[in-house]
Give the backbone structure.
Amino acid sequence: MKKILFYLKQIGFYLGFILILALFLSLLNLLNIGSNVTNVLAIAALIVYFLIMGIIHGKKADSKGFLVGLKIGLSSILILIIIDLIFFRAKFSLIRIIYYLILLLSCILGGTIGINHKKEK
């Protein structure tokens, strides 16, 4: 039960982060900052968030941090794909697949870093 609550809390943080990021980027667009800048900021913020999420879950794992990062990354990317399909009716393309792979690799790297920086008890 604790693990389910932990994962639900992480999904809540993820959705909250996406909402705050969307509001921040919308504000930047209102201030006439170029859309290229906001696109790069959105991608960089999500990559860093996936890395941090992987590190957090990797530190809580017993072993195989890359599998924890893969599991968390895939579930988060699935949520992102569902949001894209429902709200934006986005179609799959090679660039979108590469984007999701970069996010997945970031989360896997975070899980690996997290398991290696785990404090010994």
Helices lie at 2-30, 35-60, 65-88, 94-116. Residues 2-116 form one domain. DSSP finds four helices and no strands in the chain.
